[in-house]
Design goal:
heterodimer; A: alpha/beta; Enolase-like, domain 1; five-stranded parallel sheet; 10 helices; 26 strands; globular; B: mainly beta; Rieske Iron-sulfur Protein; four-stranded antiparallel sheet; 11 strands
C-alpha cells in the first residue's frame, strides 16, 4: 500500500488531502508543497491588515497531524514516472504512489521587454511581502495588467496613499473575467480614486524609475508589478508524458491521461460536456475540484459539474459572478439599493448572474441565482428584473414545480 | 459576576425578512439576528469564525446561514458549524420577541 501523493499544497492540494480522510481513506496521504510555510490562503494576500501582509494558514500543523497527513514543506517534485508510479523530489527522496494528484497551480506570466526583471510578481506570500514592504506613501507604483489581480492591488495601494498607474494592452480593464457593465463601473471607480490608466498600450521597456510605453511616453514608477495573468504549472505533467494543453488535461472525473493521476485547481483543464477543456482560476474552484478528485481517487465516479463562481473586492465594492456570462446572452438588469444584478439567459434558460454592490451586499442574491442556475429553470425575465420579487421565492416555486 | 446578562432591544421583528437576518451592532461588538421560517428569532456572533465576514449578508435558508464569501455554513439556532471552511462553532445568544420587538441577551 503506497497511498496517495499530492503535488502542490495550495488551496486545492490541501483541501484534497483532508477530503480524502473525509471520504474514509485510511492509507497514507503525503502533501508536498514548494513554499517554506504551512499551507496558506492566497486571497488575503491582497488585503494587508495595518500594512502587514496576512499569513492565514489553511490549517495548522496539529490539524495535518490529527488527520494523518504527511506534509513535506519546501520540497519540489522534480520528475514523475507514471510507469513505476514514482515521484522524485528536490530533497532527494523518491515516493511511490497508488494514486497521485497534481495540484501544481499556476505561476505568473512574465514580461519579456527590456528591464522585465525589475517587475515584481504577485502570487505568493513572499511576493506580497516584497510589494507591501516597499510600497510606502508617496511612492509610485505601476501595475502592468488591468485584470482582477492588478485591479485589486491598485485598490489596496490607493488606500495607502500611493500613486498608482495601471498599464493595459486592451482598450478596457477587466475585459477577461468581468461582464462589461461591471468592468466599466469598477474602472470608473478606480478613476475616481485617482488611478491613472494607460490603456491600449504596449510596453517598450522598464527603466530604473519608469515604464516606457510603446508610444514613447514614460510612466514614473518606483515599483513595477507584473499582473498579466498566470500560466498553469504543467512542467511536471508534460515531462511525464501526460496530455497537456492550457493546463493538465483531464476527463470530467478529473483524471488525467494516466488513470492513476488526477489533477485539480488552477492547473487542471477539465473536459466539458459540449467539447473542449476549461480551466478556472478561483478559490472555490480549487476547493470543489479537490473534493471531487479526492472522492474519485478512492473509487468514486463523480463528474465535476460545479457552477463557476468568484468574487473580487475593490475599495468598498464587492463583485460576485456565478456561471459564465457570454456577450451573446440576453441580459436582464435588476436595480438594488446601492447595487445592481445582471442575469444572463440563453434561449430563456438562466445560465449566469453577476452583481456589484457595497461589500458583500450582492452575495445573498448571487447565491440564490446560482441555485436558480443549478435548478435549470427558465425564469420570467420580468420577475428577474423586479427588485420586489424575492429570488428565494422564485427558487422555491421552481423547486415545487 | 462576569456573566451578567443584559437584555438589549435589537430591532422590530418586521425589520427582519422572514427566513432572513440583519446585522446588529452593540457596545463595540457585532451580532447577527435571525428570523426563522417559523418566525422564531435567534442571535449569534456577527462574524464568521473562518474570516471576519458579516454573516447577516449571507443567505439564510431554513435554519442555516451561509457565509457570503466562502460558503461556510452554520445552524444559527445552535451555532454549529455545518460546512467547511467554517469549522469552529458560532457563539449564540438568547433572543426573544416582546410586543413585536426582538431583544437579545448579551453577556
Amino acid at each position: 500500500m503506497n497511498g496517495i501523493v499530492i503535488i502542490g499544497a495550495g488551496e486545492s492540494g490541501t483541501r484534497a488531502a483532508f477530503a480524502l480522510r473525509e471520504s474514509g481513506f485510511t492509507g497514507s496521504v503525503t502533501l508536498v508543497g514548494t513554499e517554506p510555510h504551512l499551507p496558506y490562503e492566497r486571497p488575503p494576500l491582497s488585503k494587508p491588515l495595518n500594512g502587514a501582509v496576512q499569513m492565514k494558514p489553511i490549517c495548522g500543523a496539529e490539524a495535518l497531524q490529527a488527520a494523518g497527513i504527511d506534509y513535506l514543506q519546501g520540497v519540489s517534485a522534480l520528475s514523475l514516472d507514471p510507469d513505476t508510479r514514482s515521484v522524485a523530489f528536490s530533497d532527494g527522496r523518491t515516493l511511490t504512489y497508488d494514486k497521485l494528484l497534481l495540484a501544481t497551480g499556476a505561476r505568473p506570466r512574465r514580461l519579456t521587454c527590456p528591464g522585465a526583471e525589475r517587475a515584481l510578481d504577485f502570487r505568493t506570500y513572499a511576493d506580497a511581502a516584497t510589494i507591501f514592504s516597499s510600497a510606502d506613501p508617496g511612492k509610485s507604483i505601476s501595475i502592468i495588467g488591468g485584470g482582477l489581480i492588478g485591479m485589486e492591488l491598485a485598490a489596496v495601494l490607493r488606500g495607502k496613499g500611493i500613486t498608482v498607474s495601471v498599464i493595459e494592452m486592451a482598450a478596457k480593464p477587466l475585459g477577461r473575467a468581468v461582464p462589461p457593465r461591471f468592468a466599466a463601473k469598477l474602472h470608473a471607480r478606480h478613476q475616481d480614486e485617482g488611478v491613472a490608466f494607460h490603456l491600449g498600450q504596449g510596453m517598450a521597456a522598464i527603466t530604473d524609475d519608469a515604464v516606457l510605453l510603446a508610444d514613447g511616453s514614460a510612466v514614473p514608477a518606483d515599483i513595477v508589478v507584473a499582473a498579466i495573468g498566470v500560466l498553469p504549472d504543467v512542467a511536471l505533467a508534460e515531462a511525464a508524458g501526460l496530455a497537456t494543453g492550457n493546463g493538465v488535461l483531464t476527463d470530467s472525473f478529473l483524471r488525467t491521461s494516466d488513470p492513476n493521476i488526477f489533477a485539480a485547481g488552477d492547473c487542471a483543464a477539465v473536459a466539458q460536456p459540449g467539447g473542449g477543456y476549461i480551466r478556472f482560476e478561483s478559490w472555490r474552484n480549487a476547493r470543489s475540484q479537490a473534493e471531487t478528485a479526492a472522492r474519485n481517487m478512492v473509487g468514486g465516479k463523480e463528474a465535476f459539474g460545479a457552477i463557476p463562481w468568484f468574487w473580487t473586492d475593490q475599495y468598498d465594492l464587492g463583485l460576485q459572478v456565478a456561471g459564465l456570462p457570454q456577450p451573446e446572452h440576453q441580459s436582464v438588469i435588476r436595480q438594488l439599493d446601492g447595487g445592481e444584478l445582471e442575469f444572463y439567459l440563453d434561449d430563456g434558460r438562466l445560465l449566469a448572474a453577476a452583481g456589484l454592490g457595497s461589500c458583500n451586499s450582492v452575495a445573498r442574491d448571487i447565491k440564490l441565482a446560482e441555485m436558480l442556475i443549478a435548478a435549470g429553470i427558465n425564469p420570467d425575465p420580468a420577475a428577474l428584473a423586479d427588485p420586489g420579487v424575492n429570488l428565494k421565492a422564485l427558487l422555491k416555486n421552481a423547486r415545487a414545480a | 459576576m462576569s456573566n451578567v446578562i443584559t437584555w438589549v432591544p435589537a430591532c422590530k421583528l418586521d425589520d427582519i425578512e422572514q427566513e432572513g437576518a440583519i446585522r446588529f451592532d452593540h457596545a463595540g461588538r457585532t451580532y447577527a439576528v435571525y428570523r426563522g421560517p417559523d418566525d422564531s428569532v435567534y442571535c449569534t456572533a456577527g462574524l464568521c469564525t473562518h474570516e471576519a465576514i458579516h454573516l447577516a449578508d449571507g443567505l439564510v435558508m431554513d435554519f442555516e446561514v451561509e457565509c457570503p464569501k466562502h460558503s461556510g455554513a452554520f445552524d444559527y439556532r445552535t451555532g454549529e458549524a455545518l460546512r467547511l471552511p467554517a469549522c469552529e462553532n458560532l457563539k449564540t445568544y438568547p433572543a426573544e420577541i416582546v410586543d413585536g420587538e426582538v431583544r437579545v441577551a448579551l453577556d
